[in-house]
Design a protein that fits this description.
Blueprint lengths: L24 E8 L6 E7 L3 E2 L10 E13 L4 E4 L3 E4 L8 E3 L3 E8 L5
Antiparallel strand pairs: 1-2, 2-8, 3-7, 4-5, 4-6, 4-7, 4-8
Length: 115
């Protein structure tokens, strides 16, 4: 079943800590397609959160809009702030991260179709 059709509503999704995430990283799933794995979610980092997994890559497309706060890519030595956007194709290297103030992000993931 694809992502469900939903008109504007107040989400009832709970904030949860994703499996294998660094302490202080939380997600609120907004929609999910169980067949493809495509997901839309809010992700937040508590102030002072530092990811420890090293450089990240994954097999899906990831789009991220930073809504509030700051997010520092330690490898790039760059700090990103509210209003900044990233579009990452599968295999793109990014992170690890540090958020001094904490942050809130909208994240959309999409798996490639066909091979």
């Amino acid at each position: 079943m694809p992502k469900p059709e939903m008109e504007f509503h107040r989400t009832q999704a709970r904030w949860v800590q994703p499996e294998d995430a660094a302490p202080g990283v939380w997600e609120q799933q907004l929609s999910h397609d169980p067949e493809t794995g495509d997901t839309s979610l809010l992700q937040r980092y508590d102030p002072g959160t530092r990811t420890t997994a090293g450089v990240i890559t994954h097999e899906f497309w990831e789009e991220v809009l930073l809504l509030e706060g700051d997010l520092r890519d330690i490898t790039l030595n760059r700090t990103f702030t509210a209003g900044m956007y990233a579009c990452r194709p599968p295999g793109m290297r990014h992170g690890p991260y540090l958020s001094t103030l904490g942050c809130l992000m909208f994240v959309n993931t999409r798996y490639p179709t066909g091979a």
